[in-house]
Amino acid sequence: MTSRPGYSCALPGTADVVEKAKLAERLGYRRVWLFDSPALHGDMWVALARIAAGTDRIGLATGVAVPGLRHPMATASAIGSVHELAPGRLVVAFGTGFTARHTLGMKPISWAALTCHVRQVRALLDGEVVDIDGEPCQMMQSAGSGPPRPINVPLWVAASGPKGIGAARELNVPGVVMTSIPPQSDHGSADPWTERALLRFGTVLRPGEDHTSSRVIEAAGPGYASIVHAVWQNASNAVDALPGGRAWRASIEAERPEGHRHLVVHQGHLSQLTERDRGVVAAAGPGILEPGWTGDAASTAARFEEAGADGVTEIVYVPAGPDIPGELTAFAAAANS
């Protein structure tokens, strides 16, 4: 029998993130996932610690932690600190860092490097001596300075594409985070993970709303714009094929010289529209409704059923725009309908 997925939310580390997490807890969200893009948002671990201290039961998750931004020991220590504040509530998912690293002018790390990093963090949490950069390392916090080892926090992988799925299998992780549901043959019963979280952006449409609604533009626009950002990052000229893409690219090139353009392309990522992004969103017209889960409450509820049939256990909703409480409330209502 197919199980209906639970619902969680993903948020940046804003000053008011604890209030948003408290609302999510009241609305029945399973977990709050925090972005790890330090060039765009406040520190993920600080935000998770604040949420851990300010809530009672909602789960906490990294969405997703990026190797290469921190030494494995720094990550293991942060995991231990949050685990102390909220025992049993933390899940740590790792990803290659598409946005987080591109905003620093770096490419995402390789899957081999991610696999090595996750193994090192796991071993540190287990209390083992680990060779890192040619030197032995071990968590040495005494009583009162950190939790005793082993620190039993689940480590997941953001498994995008065949290589990501391969890394998740190799690491034998209990859960994966995905941006799309892979073909059935790619997530068969032999996979080690029992939990599959699916990231979805968009907005729940109210009666009479469409792509021309100012509220819909603000709430669904950032998700569409993130696709434009990704297309540019992979091949800048490719955005010319998108509605309004040529003018969008010209604006980027006029604002910053080559080698500096990554400093502005990803601004507002999955959170809010920049003035530049408003132009490409307007040019897309009804196209902004196509990616993600934008639709009325009934269609959102139906998508939950479809995702559950595909083995998804958790929908991670990424609300955007100026009214995050309203987006969280509407999505929870649709999820429960």
Automatic annotation (TrEMBL):
Keyword list, A-Z: Oxidoreductase
For this chain, one GO molecular function annotation is: oxidoreductase activity, acting on paired donors, with incorporation or reduction of molecular oxygen
Q: Does the keyword Disulfide bond apply?
A: no
Asked if Oxidoreductase is a keyword of the record, the answer is yes
Taxonomy, superkingdom: Bacteria
Q: What SUPFAM superfamilies is this protein classified in?
A: Bacterial luciferase-like (SSF51679)
Could you tell me which Pfam families the record lists for this protein?
Bac_luciferase
Where does the Luciferase-like domain lie? 14-171
What protein is this chain from?
5,10-methylenetetrahydromethanopterin reductase
Q: Per the UniProt entry, what species is this protein from, by scientific name?
A: Actinoallomurus bryophytorum
